[in-house]
Structure formats: C-alpha cells, structure tokens
Specification:
The structure holds two protein chains of two kinds. By secondary structure, chain A is α/β, with parallel strands linked by helices. Chain A has twelve helices and twelve strands. Helices cover 35% and strands 19% of the residues of chain A. In chain A, the strands form two sheets. Chain A has an eight-stranded mixed sheet, with helices on both faces. In chain A, strands 2-1-4-5 form a four-stranded antiparallel sheet, covered by helices on one side. In chain A, helix 4 runs parallel beside helix 6 and helix 5 packs across helix 6. The radius of gyration of chain B is 21 Å and the shape is globular. In chain B, strands 6-7-8-3-9-10-12-11 form an eight-stranded mixed sheet, with helices on both faces. Chain B is α/β, with parallel strands linked by helices. Chain B starts with 6 loop residues before the first strand and ends in a 14-residue tail after the last strand. The chains are: A alpha/beta, B alpha/beta. The interface between A and B is large, with 61 and 58 residues. Bound molecules: adenosine-5'-diphosphate (2 copies), iron/sulfur cluster (2 copies) and magnesium ion (2 copies). One adenosine-5'-diphosphate (ADP) binds next to strand 2 and helix 2 of chain A.
Chain lengths: 364, 328
C-alpha cells in the first residue's frame, strides 16, 4: 500500500536575516526528515518550540517549498506540480492553524469564510448548494446554521477554531494538517475540540497530521508519533509504545516533564540542563548531546541515524540499546475511588443532558 | 477559616465590580495560606485569577481600587483591600510578584545586575551589587558575574524567568505571588523553573501563591488549592483533597477533561459551553449554565459547605453522589 503522504529527506533552511548575529548564516529549521503517513491514520509531530514542527507542517502542505527533499502525496511528487495539479493538491490537503482568529479574515462573514474554499476548489457547486453545504458543515462542527451571517469576532476561541475546521473541510480534503490546533484553548474547550476532530475524522474519512508541543494531547489524538528535536526526528513509532516506554533520552525527558493532573508521590522528573540551542548553530553530531546525560565522544562526531528496534519503532541514538527504557505505562496508580466515581457521574450526567438538548453548539 | 500560628495570609470577602452599579465580578473570595506553603489558584482564562493577584499586590487600576472590598491579614497585620497604596508599599519587600512575561518587570534598557541591585538598595541601602551576584548564582545563571552586565533581551526565555525570580526574591519576601510563571515556557524548562521555585521556597521559608490554568502544574506543586470560576472561589482545599476527592462539579469536570499521559485512551470528558463573560453572569450559581447536575435550586446562590478537613465547596448538591436520581 502506498502511503498517503511521504516525506523524503526534507530539509528546510532559512536565511538568518540581518543583524550582527544572523548575517550570512542559516537557520537549520528542518534537517533531513523522512516518514510515511498511512491513509486513515492520525500522525503527530511533537517537540518543544523552535524544533521545526511548523516549518515541517508547512512544507508538507506546500505552503512553503523545501530547500531539498520531496513530499509524495499518494505517490505523486509534490515538487513537480504546477497549475491545475498544484490546485488539486491544495484541495486534498487543508490546514488548521493554532490561532483561529488570525487565520480568519475579520471582514468576512462566517458563511463567506466557509464558502470561499468551495468556490476555489469545487467550481461545480452553485450558490444555493454552497449555502446548503455551509449550513451542514456548521452543524457538523457543533455550531448553528444561523451563525452563517455573523462575524468571527462575535465568537469565542473554541467556536472560532470550529469555524476554522469547517472552512478546512469545505474543500473536501482527504488530509487535514493541524498546527497546534488546540494549544490556545482552555482545557474544557480543548477537550471539546479534540473530540470533535476525532468525530470528523471518522465521518469524513480523513487522515490527520497534528503538530503540537503537548505530549499528553498528542498521545490522546494519534496512532503514531514522531518526536522532533532541533530539526530532526529522534524517535518515531506507535503512540502508546513511545509514551509508555520512551527510549530516546530526549523523549524520556519530555515524558517525565509532563506534569500530570494527579497526585503522585513517586514522580521524579528527569531535569534537563539548559535550553534548546539555537538552530542557527546546532551542535555537531547528535543535536541533543549538549543536554544529554548519556553523551559520549562519538555523539559529537557522528550523526545518529534512525534505527529500528525490536518493537518496530525507530530511535536515533548511538546508545539506544544500552540506555534503560523508561516505564510510564505499567505502574500507573489507580485513581482514588471518590474521584473515579465522580468523574463517571459527571460524564454520565453530561451525556444525559446532551441527549435532551436539541440545540447543538452550546451544550456539547 | 482560622489556622494555626503559621498562618501567613488570609483573604476575607474580596469583592470587585467593574462599574458603579454593576454586580461584583470577584465575589466573596476567601482563602488562606500558611508560611512556607504553596497555594495554587487555578481556573480557566477569564475566571478572575489575575485580578485577585493584582488586588493583593496593590496593582489595581485607580478606577477599580475604589470599588474593591474585603480584608486581608498578612503576617498578623490586618489591611483592607481598599488600601491599595499600603499594599503597594509592601511590594518588593515582604510581598513580591513574578509575572508570566518577565519583560513586565524587567526594564529592557538596564543591565540585569543593576536592576536587581537597585531592587535591593530600595529597601536596604548599600551592598546591592554583591547581593545581585549572589541572587543570580542562586537562581542558576551560569557565569553570573559576566551575565550581570547583560541586558534582558540577551537572555533566553528560561534565563529571563530566572532573573525575574532573582529580582523578586532579593529582599527575602515572606510571600511571592507568581502569575502563570511558566505558561510561556517549554515543559522541560518549566520543570527547571518549578524546581528552582521549590528549592528557593525551602531555603527562604516563603509562602507562594501560584496562579495557573494548568492542573498538571497544580498537582506537582500545591499544598492548598483554590479553584476559581467566573470570579468566585468554588472549591478550596488541600491539594490531595482537590485531586483525590474533588467536590465541586467544575473541579470534577476540569480534572476529568485533561487528557491523561498514560493508561487507556478513552473519549475525553467535556464541560459543555464556556466560561461566561463578566457582563453575562446570571442569578444563582455561576456554573449552572454548564453544570450537568443543575436543578431548580441552583438558580439561587449556593451556600459554602464545609466538608471534612478545611475543604470548602460552593455548591447546593455536593457531594453529587447523594443527589436523588430524578434530580440529575
Ligand atoms: N521564515 C523564517 N525565517 C527565518 N527563520 C525561521 C522562519 N520560520 C521559522 N524560522 C525558524 O526556524 C526554527 C523552527 O521554527 P518553527 O518551525 O516555527 O518551530 P516550532 O513550530 O517547532 O516552534 C525557529 O528557530 C524559527 O525561528
Ligand atoms: N477593568 C476591567 N473592566 C472590565 N472587565 C475587566 C477588567 N479587568 C478585567 N476584566 C475582565 O475580568 C475577567 C477576569 O480577568 P482575569 O483576572 O484577567 O482572569 P484570569 O487571570 O483568570 O484569566 C476577564 O473576563 C476580563 O476581561
Ligand atoms: S546519540 Fe549520544 S547525545 Fe544523542 S541522545 Fe544518544 S547518547 Fe545522547
Ligand atoms: S450549585 Fe447547582 S449548578 Fe452550581 S455547581 Fe452545584 S449543582 Fe451545579
Ligand atoms: Mg510552531
Ligand atoms: Mg491571568
């Protein structure tokens, strides 16, 4: 089976721009990234700020061109596409942005915003059909058809993200790429949008590519995860396997730094030294070596390549066979009874109320 | 809510309205903090966490400071929130503040060494430079001596946050209020900063009020927790009680909607709707519009119930498992 999206040794370098420090230098934002995404899968790219996630996402959807390397969509090289072909690709791949407000034209009504991609990508639709479908899409993302005549500023952050999603779906894409689609939302609204994306994925038969910095969110949403550090993938594989038993020292540190919303006396985070170095002057060899507790001389000399381990994941570390595997899966302590019971009561009561409400949008 | 001798701060009946005749947005806010402990104020954006901090710091805008009500007792001294001037004078000394964005308190055009030194000399006179160097070393700035001469923009986000902590702690405050101090940082740097604050707290025996929207951070650092919703404290208890025995429906829904980092992946629990804007608060319980347990009686103001062990809940129906089937 051909992958629906394949990244082949993608590289993206930017000019560092003016200023004393930057002149004539390059920002090594993405430095040789390869992976495959299968149809129907949710694939996530996770890492801390500046590691190149957004650049990678934009390269995949051809919002920007890579410095070298290629992207194949259903086996076709994107780099070679022009005119009609490129437009078809654009309709196949749609983008959801982190900040729904900045990505929506404030002077366009919600209806016009959602109809616009239909005009571009589906010229066969007439005005009446577009309007009917816009109403339908609004309901599918949990808003009301009547919202069509309102403007983005009249909506909350979560509702705007729903509008952004409806707009992306209007082109009838097969692949949806979200760059931090829920990062700016408060936790209760974040949960609403995460559930919505899961529902829409099934309903529209989508392939999702999610870029985010929050490992808990990413684990929840995806089938496979790629962990990035300074422009390179350090570990890639099954979402549960990677989060339960991270093998790369960076993934291990990232997992241990995620603060869990429960009291756990045994928690003992791995503290990394320092911060991510600048991508203008990344460390030689393994880019993680300046913060890695396991680094040896070879780490400065040789770039570690991704190697497949027994459980099928890939890890880029010279010493992945020797470094002890972390365990976040097996010994999760049970929730206390009182909390567990009340969470269940809450969830049950919300579902019961939802069934009673015909009006969508507000209570969901 | 009286506590033992180690009580550092009690806030009683803090209230604040945005206009002359308008209703109180901050309403009947009460909480306590002991010496050397960490109180987390948690809630989603727009719940009034920052306004609470500003009221305590004497940083309310003049138009608002006229309308603030309530009292506090700090280190045994009683003050009214109306005395914003007095609170202001304490700031930088016994009371100090750490912001989310370090550039709020660091001046971009002065060297960091001079700024910290200045903060010390304000309250002590001479000896600022030695003290500044000492503080920079204590907060883990590498090569502190030469860093003294750096301007804020020459530092990374994590380093700037350390410098701000150094500045906030230079005068040995007994209470530090940190408003979302790690929200703008990556998780690995957040871990470092939380560890640093914890270490400094132990050596200086200071109380910390940490304001955050992140329940994960709360679970890691809090001794006590005040959960805020739409301008009110809806639940106030020890951290163990909040996470292991949550009583208020908002607290329950909030914790349940966080995606867990391990264990089976189930559909996320959601709280329907969103936090109401200050202008659209209805009668009675402010959470009623989103609460799956709301009944007729919730249209009236809920009482504050005292559960076992200094555990306060503002709800008609807590504990919810005792509600009658027909009501839910
Ligand atoms: N247009 C650009 N010009 C120069 N540098 C850029 C540009 N876009 C991104 N970068 C740099 O590339 C690196 C990776 O950025 P980005 O892909 O946005 O990371 P992330 O999304 O993981 O935070 C950063 O150092 C960023 O400053
Ligand atoms: N001066 C003001 N006039 C009117 N509304 C205000 C004023 N200051 C803050 N607010 C509103 O009060 C609410 C609570 O604000 P804030 O304390 O900043 O919340 P939090 O820190 O919990 O996110 C917000 O909805 C905000 O818009
Ligand atoms: S290659 Fe070396 S520096 Fe890089 S993660 Fe492995 S041990 Fe650490
Ligand atoms: S008082 Fe009523 S509406 Fe408010 S939280 Fe309790 S049950 Fe819900
Ligand atoms: Mg980004
Ligand atoms: Mg705030």
């Amino acid at each position: 089976m051909t992958a629906i999206v394949e990244a082949i040794d993608l590289v993206k370098e930017f000019d560092a721009g003016g200023g004393m420090l930057g002149k004539g230098k390059k920002v090594y934002a993405v430095s040789g990234v390869s992976f495959e995404v299968q149809r129907g899968e949710t694939f996530a790219i996770v890492g801390e700020s500046g590691c190149g996630k957004s650049t990678l996402a934009r390269t995949l959807s051809r919002l920007i061109a890579p410095t070298s390397g290629d992207v194949l969509v259903q086996g076709t090289s994107v780099g070679a596409l022009k005119g009609r072909g490129l437009r078809d690709l654009r309709s196949k791949i749609q983008f959801i942005f982190q900040d729904p407000f900045s990505s929506l034209n404030p002077r366009m009504s919600v209806g016009a915003l959602i109809a616009e991609p239909m005009e571009v990508h589906r010229p066969d639709l007439n005005a009446k059909q577009r309007r009917a479908e816009t109403a339908q899409l609004l309901r599918q993302v949990g808003l009301r058809a009547a919202h069509m005549d309102r403007y983005p500023h009249e909506f909350s952050g979560g509702q705007r993200q729903r509008i952004g999603i409806a707009r992306a779906l209007a082109a009838k894409p097969e692949i949806l790429i979200g760059d931090e689609p829920v990062s700016a939302l408060d936790v209760s609204v974040q949960a609403q949008v995460i559930n919505l994306l899961a529902d829409l994925k099934t309903e529209f038969g989508l392939t999702l590519i999610i870029v985010a910095h929050d490992l808990a969110v990413v684990r929840h949403m995806s089938d496979r995860i790629a962990v990035m550090y300074l422009g390179r993938i350090v570990e890639i594989g099954d979402a549960d396997a990677i989060t339960a038993n991270p093998r790369h020292p960076y993934t291990q540190a990232l997992m241990s730094a995620v603060p869990e919303a429960r009291i756990d006396a045994n928690r003992n985070p791995i503290l990394l030294e320092g911060e991510i170095p600048s991508p203008i002057n990344p460390p030689s060899g393994c880019r993680f070596r300046t913060r890695c507790a396991f680094a040896k001389a070879i780490c400065a000399e040789k770039i570690p390549l991704l190697e497949t381990t027994k459980d099928g994941r890939e890890v880029a570390c010279h010493f992945h066979k020797e470094i002890p595997v972390s365990d976040y899966g097996s010994e999760t302590q049970a929730l206390p009874e009182a909390a567990k019971r009340r969470f269940a009561l809450f969830r049950g009561a919300v579902n019961a109320r939802k069934e009673n409400k015909t009006q969508q949008g507000e209570y969901q | 809510m009286s506590h033992s001798m180690s009580n550092l701060l009690s806030v009683k009946g803090l209230g604040l309205s945005f206009s002359e005749k308008g209703p109180d947005f901050l309403r009947d806010v009460n909480f306590d903090l002991n010496k050397g402990e960490t109180l987390c104020i948690v809630g989603e954006s727009g719940c009034g966490k920052s306004l609470t901090a500003l009221s305590l710091m004497g940083l309310l805008a003049p138009s608002l400071s006229r309308r603030v009500k309530g009292e506090l007792s700090f280190e045994g001294q009683s003050l009214r929130f109306q005395d914003q001037k007095k609170l202001q004078q304490m700031r930088g000394g016994r009371l100090s503040m750490i912001f989310q964005e370090p550039m709020t308190s660091l001046n971009p055009s002065f060297r960091i060494g001079d700024q910290i030194s200045e903060a010390w000399q304000c309250h002590h006179g001479a000896g600022g430079r030695e003290r500044a160097l000492e503080m920079l070393e204590r907060v883990g700035i590498p090569d502190a001596k030469s860093r003294m001469n750096d301007y804020p923009h020459q530092l990374s986000g994590g380093m700037r946050q350390r410098v701000m902590i150094a500045m906030a702690l230079v005068n040995n405050p007994s209470l530090v209020i940190a408003d979302e101090p790690t929200t703008a940082l990556d998780v690995t740097v957040q871990s470092q900063i939380l560890k640093l604050m914890n270490d400094m707290q132990k050596t200086l025996n200071m109380g910390i009020i940490l304001i955050t929207h992140d329940l994960g951070v709360v679970a890691q650092v809090a001794t006590r927790v005040a959960v805020m919703y739409a301008g009110e404290v809806v639940e106030h208890a020890s951290a163990e009680a909040i996470f292991n025995d949550p009583q208020h429906p908002y607290t329950i829904g909030l914790i349940a909607s966080v995606p867990p980092i391990s264990g089976p992946r189930e559909r996320l629990t959601v709280i329907p709707g969103r936090v109401p804007l200050p202008g659209s608060l209805g009668k009675g319980c402010r959470f009623a519009g989103r609460c799956p347990f709301a009944t007729e009686i919730c249209q009236t103001d809920p009482p504050v119930q005292l559960m076992e062990g200094s555990h306060f809940v503002r709800c008609h129906h807590a504990p919810i498992e005792n509600m009658k089937e027909s009501a839910a």
